[in-house]
Input
Amino acid sequence: MYFDLKTGKPKKSKVYLICGAPASGKSTYVNEHKSPGDMVVDLDLIRQALGAPHKTSSLFQKQILQIRDLLYDEIQFNNVGCENIWVISGLPDSTVRQQTARRLNAEIIFMKTSLDECIKRASLDGERIDKETQYRIISEYFEKLN
Output
């Protein structure tokens, strides 16, 4: 909930749930569409903020998920004071994707990037250090996609 400066009235934040495979362009999409002051909830950004060295690091995994869950609770109960909230998550299972969208009262934006394109992007991404692990994670995402 935030105050609309034009009307002076409280207004609900607009929540977008950006879903897709690893390397499908979720973060790029958000960076191209967000405005200053918008909230972005992304495990990669939380991991980076806590000091984990790269996207595939398992350091702080428990704390990263706890922070995400706390932010989800704040979004669910309209306790975030900004106009737009961008939630980045893979969510290959359509049931879980729909449940998360309902919980957060979010509009789903699904990145329809092919397996081959995701593999290509991952191979070019310098932050994805263990390429074989990344290729496996991407392939597993597409196996679970429904």
Summary: The mean pLDDT is 93. The first helix runs from residue 26 to 33. The two ends are 33 Å apart (CA to CA).
